[in-house]
Amino acid sequence: MSVSFSSTSVSFSESSFAFQRPAPAHLCSNSLTVASNNFHSATGGGRLVLNVGGTCLCRKFRGLKLWLLERLSFQFQPPKQPKNRNHHFRNNLENEKGSVSDSSSNLRVPDDKVTPVESLSLLQTGLSGTPVDVGRKPSLCIAVIGATGELAKRKIFPALFALYYSGFLPENVGIFGYSRKDITDEDLRSIIASTLTCRVDHQENCDNKLDAFLSKTYYINGGYDNKYGMSMLNSRMEQIEGGSKTNRIFYLSVPQEALLDVASCLASSAQTQNGWNRIIFEKPFGFDARSSDRLTQYILSNFQEKQIFRIDHLLGRNLIENLTVLRFSNLVFEPLWSRTYIDNVQVILSEDLGVHPGRYFSGYGIIRDIVHCHVLQTIALLAMEPPISLDGEDIRNEKLKVLRLIRKLEPKDVILGQYKASGGAKVDACVNGLTPTYFAAALYIDNARWDGVPFLIKTGLGLIKHQMEIRIQFRNVPGNVYHECIGHNRDRAINELILRDVPDEAILVRVNNKVPGLGLQLDSSELNLLYKDKYNMEVPDSYEHLLLDVIDGDNHLFMRSDELAAAWTILTPILNEIDKNNMSVELYEMGGRGPIGAYYLWAKHGVRWVED
What we know:
Number of strands: 19
Domain Glucose-6-phosphate dehydrogenase NAD-binding: 144-322
Strand order of the largest sheet: 18-17-16-15-11-14-13-12-19
CATH architecture of the domain at 315-540 and 561-605: 2-Layer Sandwich
Number of helices: 17
Strand content: 15-25%
CATH class of the domain at 315-540 and 561-605: Alpha Beta
Radius of gyration: 29 Å
Region (Disordered): 79-109
Family: Belongs to the glucose-6-phosphate dehydrogenase family.
Structural class: alpha/beta
Protein name: Glucose-6-phosphate 1-dehydrogenase
Shape: globular
CATH superfamily of the domain at 315-540 and 561-605: Dihydrodipicolinate Reductase, domain 2
CATH topology of the domain at 315-540 and 561-605: Dihydrodipicolinate Reductase, domain 2
GO molecular function: glucose-6-phosphate dehydrogenase activity; NADP binding
Largest sheet: 9 strands, mixed
């Protein structure tokens, strides 16, 4: 008899093989228990061959030894594991109720001894390196509530397919659509098939992957009784899961007025007891501080904070992720990141009119839709102190400190605008009373790092062009010996760091340099990192980024309940003044530069207006 490890083969006779209990101290002391069905083996002619990968040989040999003991009828009691110990398997295999297991095998590995990739590999392939066929039961199920809506069709399902095609979803994932429409599985597949495409740089086997993804997509007609509908969803999920250990994600793409009922019924009737459950909520998260607090308390009565992911697709942009990378991984920037060197920070966001459906936008306005989440989260990430780690909760803690230190907005520091209604139905649909479609404001953070530095916000709908960027303007050089060469407009000679997402993603640094030639003439030029020239790849959609974060349990780009409350505290005074008709709303032309009042607001705070 022999045992083969990759290229190593050890032969021995069964009659001469004797087992003893292992000594207390052992090189392979990690507790690893694997039942025999996790081995891919072949026997013949008194020779036993087990295909075991060369990596992590120590742990795998211990599993092999236990398998041999079981086959030879030896009794062996492995050390007991500590109670209530959680195991985190990145890439969707985290089980918040304990170790990951199924009905026929139990794999227990201490967290500090196995990397996430190794854990995933062990669970998917056993010890042989060959995929384990466990009936193709899904290890992850994702349910889209409101599956026939525009957001689901245009964004959510395409993002899920892109993740599946790129290998970020398990091959045996289960995708479930839930809505009130009376359609079948095939109908849903036909609806979403027209929106699914492979990226330009990922075209191999596109049709095969598309067919495989659609075959894993199922539909549940929830009707108008969500409790019954969620029970049906749970039953269908359990049928597909087949009793295996499976985690679930629920994406609630539903109107605000239906959210509470859907969330309550989901909590009581659709959560799995054999893995973790994560729930994605779409913005906006309430109308003001009071309504948001009631909504938060209701949600927290049904779910734990760690289960809740409040999504804002704008926070999934590469620009946002670059904020912390640029600052904390480059020594050239971190020492300058304070009031000593920075004069002002500008957050600019203008969107096309077609981004927001009229009936949605008219009910909330730009403050509740964009400023409350995206803009304030951007400022928090930019201004926060270095977190103690990249863990989501550590980053959220630092963001919260910034939000709590932002002064409450006063009407004198805010400019509101609304684009003029025209004969086009597309424009008229969005205009409703005093609902603002433009917002400009000056914020101040009252701490030692940012005291006196204005953070200027300019965001609007239907402006001259689609633009998303952050501009960090530095102070003038004290006692600049070249001031005579700069000219009369010293503001044009300041250094500036520009982080641009739209129209062309780039990082720009504006510096002063000498113009070539005789004489001494200075010019302000840009050092340009243009992403499309540097990186020959298609940038994933923001929904792909955020959905992958949910699967991985990375919550740093999702607002926690206390962050949500802090953001409403900043904006509620202005919202109250708007509701009382105490604030004027300036009209502006579609395709223009916005209200004139914004220019005066910039000048009031001593900041040069940046031309579009």
